[in-house]
């Protein structure tokens, strides 16, 4: 009967379970952090350190968090935590956007269901419902963000609807009033007839839309003789804009042609004998579209030839009895159409701009609900969405229609109502891009900012370089009012610091509701007659609100700093929050409110599709947390390349669970084998065996890599490196080899002490490096070993790695040693598969190596490294059939069974087993260890 030596082994012992149970465990850790006030502890601990301030881009407070919110907030948290652990003071203040259409739309939906008319409800009452709605969702989202493990000043977040924030937003607006940047003008803006308001570029989304297309003749009224009797042909996808036409644009350097129609196809609206003018490059396209079978070219020339030509409007004689001049425009191309651009200055930015250059009238044709005003001939009262075919019919009646068609194309829609938008000339409030050199300041600020990735710089630079003036006003109720007065007779804006101060004092005390329920006299004071002034009733674009967050958060709170170290949002915020913050800050402070900007992609489903309820592919973060825990969601974030769009689905989550399990297994092994650790065991670096010094060199390398990538926010590289280190270099190599030493060597043996010293270093490094990413697991791991009441891994810094651990030569040597081992284990795997051996300890292979390899392996215990009972090296030529790997030159293996008896404690097969007088079933090493222990062999 063999003796059971299990009690003499130093087997791992730990309370750290392999099964994580994160959904049940994480809430308890959150409670612990709250009870110990971890965030405040961090602030006290780091109050004298350099600040790192990631300024939070505010989400809308209008519903439960979606997976994009979770990804964004987790990434912010990982960055703040990593900077904190690198020795900074990373004070993070979360915030919310609380005004604007998304919230107002929700209240209107409730009204519509109840049969109530919003316009019949007092504005302050309506605004209170919006405020209550936003307050509710701030509370809900706050708890959902905290459940993700995000640490921050949750007791003092910022909201754009707090009185101090609203007052500061007004203060920022009044700065533009006083420096002349604010003005009221009439321009075409992107307009939602459904929501009855102007929309910002960031509030648009593009969907396929089927448009009616028309080719239209504009008869030449006057000009050079060669054009008389002919027609200029335009093409448009918006027939409803024909009542707004006031000019036709041509490309001055483009080639044009005049034709006389000779033959037409059946059904064509072209007329034999008529003269038509189009761009040369588009002639064949137009002929095919219009059904012109044959035509003679009667004129060729440059676009400049059309200078001074006047056309008649197609509806001339029916209320459109004005000249339509041809004007040169740089925006004219031959990408589509006819080379002549129908120009309606009230319905397009380029149309407006070219019209301004040439002094063209900007007509008001469309009301806020999308219907034509009563003064519009022929189409008064008709809705622009519904009149396209009617316009084409009327053009055909008067002989102006050359061709009618359909086109499916990408078209702007409201992100809220999903309805198609229109460009509409309206009276709005603007901030000038030219006054005070705002454009130049913004472009300079872009170049002074670090962009991650660098391509973000080019994207926003192009937007700012070509953008029109900022449309600041919205015709809605829930928002910060535009607190200005205009003189009724002169149209002059009232610029008076005393009035401004009065407005601000009231806003700080009562909030922006005061503007809507107070008489003008209250703000104007006794110096002005309220009868002489119009009080603005529009509200501010919510992008102006969020563009001011730096002013009422970064500047207003001494624990923060201005400018922020980092702004971080999705790529769409180049035209959103990054953009508005840049313009607001440059307009009032002359520079950007941020030193660096990081952008991430969008979250798609597992197949790369956009998530939607109709597809049934929405992945809810709450469900992932409920099933797997927040750390799995955090692992997915840091494992993803968020510089591009990310994917998530069931299979992807399963993959992260597997990765997590491998990391957890590594931590459990370390904890188990540090059981009973005492500082007296620690070995100095100089006393370490070579393999241990190789591990320490890898820690040195990882530390440098991690710190560098934390600074450039490349966490997927960090995760990949740590994961591979744990699974490939530790679990599959170092731990695999050192199990024998850890379990079987004597407690005071140098090899075991060295291994345990390295495990201690690994524990301190891995728990710190993983803490910003796997906040719950790192804390659980830390508390398993250091369970003190005030203990937390999140109060630590990344460990300082000694410079003496760097050893590049050792790294190169062990790269080759690991390659050698791969060949041996590859050979033994075949033996195991063929059932010639059960365990690698049954083997004692002969390995044929080159002289160089033999010198490299000199002094190493190769049996330990290969986990065999013996290894014989030979520099003889390898026999035919020896096992090799193509990528490892100079190593060939011939497997063989080990000679001797099996040690009943370490299971190695050795000749020496049986020679010990007391323990004849043990090898010498095991016999010596057991002899020093209080262990007796049972009779």
TrEMBL record:
Enzyme Commission number(s): 6.1.1.5
Major localisation: cytoplasm
Gene3D superfamilies per UniProt: 1.10.730.20, HUPs (3.40.50.620), Ile-tRNA synthetase CP2 domain-like (1.10.10.830), Valyl/Leucyl/Isoleucyl-tRNA synthetase, editing domain (3.90.740.10)
Cofactor remark from the record: Binds 1 zinc ion per subunit.
Motif ('HIGH' region): 59-69
List of residues binding ATP: 613
Keywords assigned by UniProt, alphabetized: Aminoacyl-tRNA synthetase, ATP-binding, Cytoplasm, Ligase, Metal-binding, Nucleotide-binding, Protein biosynthesis, Zinc
Domain (Zinc finger FPG/IleRS-type) ranges: 900-929
Cofactor(s) the protein requires to work: Zn(2+)
Catalytic activity: tRNA(Ile) + L-isoleucine + ATP = L-isoleucyl-tRNA(Ile) + AMP + diphosphate
UniProt-annotated location(s): Cytoplasm
Record domain Methionyl/Valyl/Leucyl/Isoleucyl-tRNA synthetase anticodon-binding: where: 692-842
Enzymatic class: ligase
Quaternary structure note: Monomer.
This protein's name: Isoleucine--tRNA ligase
